[in-house]
Amino acid sequence: MAADTFDRAANAAQGAPAGGPAAGAYAQACAQLVQTPRRWLVTGVAGFIGSHLLETLLHLGQEVRGLDNFMTGHRHNLEQVRASVGEQAWRRFTFIEGDIRDLQPCMRACGAPVQAASGGDGEADGGPDAADGASGAGGSLAWRGPADTGGPVDYVLHQAALGSVSRSLEDPLLCHAVNVSGFLNMLAAAREAGVRRFVYAASSATYGDHPALPKVEQHIGAPLSPYALSKYVNELYAQVYARCYAMQTVGLRYFNVFGPRQDPLGAYAAVIPRWIAAMLDNQAVRIHGDGATSRDFCFVHNAVQANILAATRTDPAAVNQVYNVAVNARTSLTQLHATMQQMLLAVRPLHVPQAPHYGEFRAGDVRHSQADIAKAGRLLGYVPTHNLAQGLRQTIAWYVAQAERA
Known about the structure:
alpha/beta, two-stranded parallel ribbon
């Protein structure tokens, strides 16, 4: 492998500037993948995190399948990945439009024999604390049929889910159908295909009402929403499949992932993209509660790193575990708002900051959240490449560029 090939791939994967240093377990994993490409399945591939995983894997020379249905994902996310990686890399991507509530597309995507049984009624695939959805942009995104799926995948990165605490409170049946039944379909398909490892998006919502900070993986409380419950059930099913069927699974408890391509629109949009959109439109943002509510905000490149490490780590102790994915920091919503206003002023000097509007607390919300990431560091070699400020600068610059193109 040429050194410049690895540098470009590793820096792209880390989100580091071209020519910047790439060190540690993540750089080693990227180098190994460049030398020995694997076959991957990313569910929710047209969503926020899923599209970033696709982009990184294609930059690393991997063969990637994507499964999605556009419930929350977007064609333009895939189009942006295509523009980023180029046509040669894009040819290593195969898209399957399908719903994880239906067992058959899950089986096809994993490369398992397709059975007559169906696991659902067909239409959902969204996103966890930033997870995902999708379909095709042009003929090259169309599913090429079972003869062209190329056999079983090596690794599954399961991002497809229906995110949002508030959405789950409004429609708990849909939340369960997608996040629990859909998850079980994917586990069953991965087992049938004999995949090496099944990595899935878990959630910090699993900590529920447990008051301790920072959050440590083995200590959780009672779930505060159907969404939180559904993500905990995912962990339980993964444990059962590991014990009963000797599957290798790894759960990643995301803590408020943010970054470019996160959808700012809709009633269930995450706070950072929603606030950026409001600020660019010279509107005041709404803060639920008194502004002291805090979160451990995690830039998307950190989540990508965690997925690749979770899939490729060879230490047996690292498998069949759940890990926090964050930066071990806590920022209040009021602090976040002030930081974002300052950063936007730096790139748009004519921006007129607006004071936030404070409203009622939202049902089901956790008051404070901060992750202990020692376990991920010890067993996976996870070291965040971006803190909140670094991630926000890249994110705000991306949204400003998108607004200027509009």
